[in-house]
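Agenda item 2: NAP complex prediction
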Amino acid sequence: MSARVIDGKAIAATVRERVAAEVAAHAAEQGRTPVLATVIVGDDPASEIYVRNKHRACEEAGMRSVHHGLAAETSESELLELVRELGGDPDVDGILVQLPVPQHIDPDRVVAAIDPGKDVDGLTPANAGLLAHGMPGLVPCTPAGVMELLRHEGVELEGAEAVVVGRSKLVGVPVARLLLGANATVTVCHSRTRDLTATCRRADLLVAAVGVPRLLGADAVKPGSVVIAVAMNRTEEGLCGDVDYAPAAEVAAAITPVPGGVGPMTIAMLLVNTLAAARARV
Ligand code: NAP
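Presented output:
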C-alpha cells in the first residue's frame, strides 16, 4: 500500500479538543454552556446509538444536551410543535431531529420548521440557501467534516479536479458546493452518470458518498489522487466503504479508511456547529 492513511479519528479528536477549550471560554464569558436538544421519533436502534454518541461527545466537550424521545405514533403536528417550541426556547442553542422519521411524517416539513439559527445539522432550506449563495451559515456536519479533513491534510483544492459521487442534500450537494467555494473544478456524479469509472479517474480529489459497497475500484482512482470515502457499508465480510480500499490505496496518494475516516468527523463538526450556534445567539 502506498497511500497515506487519513486518520479521521485523530483529526476529529483534535477538533473536539479545540471545541472543548472554546466551550470553556464561552461558558466563562457567558455564564452558561451551549445546549444541544435532540429529538428521536420511534425506536430505531441505529438512531438511538447515533444520538447517544452525540450526547456523550457533547458532555466530553463540556456542553449540555437534552433528549426528547417521542413514540413512533407521534403525529407530524405534535413533532412540529416540539420543534417550534425548541426554536423559541432561550435555553436551547442547537436542535437536531434524528432522521429517518416514521413514514407518516414528512421529514422535509420537519427540517424546515427548525429555527435556522439552531439548525446544527445545516439542513434547513435557509442554511442550504446560504451555502448555495456562498454565504456564512450552518453547514451540514459530514460535508464540513470532509472539508476539515482536507484542510488538515493540506490538500490543494484551488484549480483541482474534484469528482463527488452522490448528489444528496445531506452529503453530495453540500460537499460539491464547499469544494466549489474552495475553487476546485467540481463534477457531481449520480446513479445516471454514464461512465462513472472514467469520470472518477479524472479526479485529483474523489469524494464517494453513495452507500454501495466497493462501487469504485482502483480503475476509478487517478494515480496520486486523494480519496475520501464517506459511506460506511455493512457487508457479510464486515464494514467497507464505497471505494475498494486496498487496491485503491495502491494507486492514491492519500485515502480515508472505513471505519475511522469521515465517520468520526461528523460528530466533531456537530460540536463545532452547536458552539457556533450558541455564539451567534449572544
Ligand atoms: P443517499 O441520499 O442515498 O444518496 C446516495 C447518492 O448516491 C444519490 O445521489 C444516488 O444517485 C447516488 N448513487 C446511488 N447508486 C449509485 C451508483 N450506482 N452510481 C453512482 N451514484 C449512485 O445517501 P446520502 O445521505 O448522501 O449518504 C451517502 C452514504 O453516506 C450513505 O451510505 C450514508 O449512510 C453515508 N453517510 C455517512 C455519514 C458519515 O458520518 N460517515 C454521514 C452521512 C451519510 P441518485 O441521486 O441518482 O439516486
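Discussion summary: The pocket of NAP is lined by residues 142, 165-168, 170-172, 189-193, 196, 209-212, 215, 230-232, 262-263, 266 (CB under 6 Å).
Owner for follow-up: CH.
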